[in-house]
Amino acid sequence: MPGVGCLAGQHGVVAAATLRRLASIISKSCAMRPTVYLDYNATTPVDARVLDRMLPYFTQHYGNPASEGHTYGWTASAAVERARRQVAAALQIDRPSAITFTSGSTEGINAALKGVAEACRDHGDHIVTVQTEHSAVRKCCKHLEQNGFRVTYLSVDTSGLLDVDELECCLTGRTILVSTMWANNETGVIQPIREISRRVRMRKIPLMTDATQAIGKISVDAAEADILVLSGHKVYGPKGVGALYMRERVNRCPLIDGGGQERGHRGGTLNVPGIVGLGEALQIAQQECEEDHTRLKVLRDEFEQELLKRIPGLRINGRDAPRLPQTSNITFPPLDADRLRIGLRTVAISSGSACSSHTHAPSPVLEAMGISREEAARTFRISLGRQTTRDEVDYAAAAIVDAVDSVGVLA
Description:
Layout: H1 2-32, E1 36-37, H2 48-54, H3 56-59, H4 71-90, E2 99-102, H5 105-120, E3 126-130, H6 135-146, E4 150-154, H7 164-170, E5 175-181, H8 193-202, E6 207-210, E7 227-231, E8 242-246, H9 272-310, E9 315-316, E10 327-331, H10 337-343, E11 347-348, H11 364-368, H12 373-377, E12 379-383, H13 390-407
Parallel strand pairs: 1-11, 3-4, 3-5, 5-6, 6-7
Antiparallel strand pairs: 2-8, 7-8, 9-10, 10-12
């Protein structure tokens, strides 16, 4: 049947041409992908050791930890409690029962702020926070303001540090909670948590801290706070899991009602593989924090020095304040920021917080530090991580310098 053979031959030619076009598209797509990832403050890859620990709980030990009548449930429950002890150890506390597993820091922030507000409404209606907090805190506070609460938003200096004396002056007999980040997600600036804690506790007011960026990068002692939140995906663990630490004396209502899981603090079937991964990730981070800190600080400092030397007018925001060892927040001299982004397509860096960059609005963190909207548009965050190499940092610095030279600084 020659007609069929001819048709088959034509189909073969068409198929081959289609495959060549697809190969070309894929090749071009791969060429456009970032070759160096320097956005670890947005998220980290799951550590292979963490993944190995998680895998059996997807397919082998898949029981519900709330199932009390058989070994499947017991095995899952034991894994959850082991992870709870690992989280407590990473936070330097000796009471694992103070840990509630969540879906991440955003849920923990909502549970803490809204839960404390609801529980304390009868004797207080005032909350103190900071203008540079994560959007989850700011939006929670706006929600509470709409429901009759008063919120004081503390200012920061040009380095991003709050004034502890100003904080203390804001406290009143109606203040029910103070909330401040341990370390900022955009600038890496570390707030003086120990002094803040001392001042706030003198007034017997609970202190909440968002330690999402600090954990695993610097030493975090949860005893400095009454409430602390963290997320797994910032410490080489999985996304969609986090932890909320809360001291016993803090009164709050649960945000999520359900089947009484987590001692009634947070309803819902537990994400066992995620919780196992979070515990393992925090244990590894605790063991390797000091080594990572030293190595990444050297790389970060050399990277910044190279850019300062090669790009006149460049500024490192928060440089004079205590900072996380792997975070740089850089404002470039006047140039076309959109063209710069295009020129940096082979380096994955951030133009702000991953949680708010899609809004294209100026960063509230930078605005609070006195950085203009025009300057904020040409400000980028570079964050190194466990897998970052010296070659990658050198490549990124050279790519940034080349991109700036190509775009050209505006007169």
